[in-house]
Write a structure and sequence with these properties.
172 residues, three-stranded antiparallel sheet, 4 helices, 30% helix
Length: 172
């Protein structure tokens, strides 16, 4: 198993997968982000070599800190997906780090692309304090925005158990 920690969540992927924390790539941090203001990055890239599927994963954990950004989460996520995808061809050609260049090549060779928003929300819900973000509405919004990229985007949480990796976390 390969472990990657994002926020307070630990993601475990099968050992044969290729996985990388894209938002920490030197290509993204030192080259691509400097193109113009506002370029964003997704948290994780995972390639399943058996199906040639690339998984683009964004992680949002609001269990202890509520969302404070006034922008729409669906639009923010779609922007990150778009910006991340735009970086792969340049990274394949110009990344200074060999591992990043190889990962970008794996992404470019893929035959299937999936996008996932992993969303954790506070556990206690009441009629007065329902879920702040409705996953069904969010999925619909993301589907509208990202249809040409992935017509069936996913919104997961730890208890979903529908994803091909394992997620567990600490804290509330």
């Amino acid at each position: 198993m390969q472990r990657h920690v994002v926020d307070r969540l630990t993601f475990e992927f099968p050992k044969e997968w290729k996985v990388s924390c894209y938002d920490s790539w030197s290509f993204y941090r030192n080259q691509f982000i400097r193109m113009w203001k506002g370029i964003k990055a997704l948290d994780l890239l995972a390639v399943d070599p058996s199906t040639k599927t690339v998984w683009l994963i964004e992680v949002k954990d609001y269990r202890s800190h509520q969302r404070t950004k006034p922008s729409d989460l669906g639009e923010e996520f779609a922007h990150k997906v778009f910006d991340t995808l735009a970086a792969f061809l340049p990274a394949k050609l110009h990344a200074n780090d060999d591992n990043e260049q190889r990962m970008a090549l794996e992404v470019c060779r893929a035959s299937k692309l999936r996008v996932v928003l992993h969303l954790e929300q506070p556990g206690k819900r009441t009629r007065l304090r329902p879920q702040a973000i409705n996953p069904v509405d969010l999925t619909q919004k993301i589907r509208q925005l990202l249809k040409p990229i992935d017509p069936h985007p996913l919104v997961f949480e730890m208890k979903s158990k529908r994803y091909p990796w394992t997620v567990y976390g600490s804290g509330p």
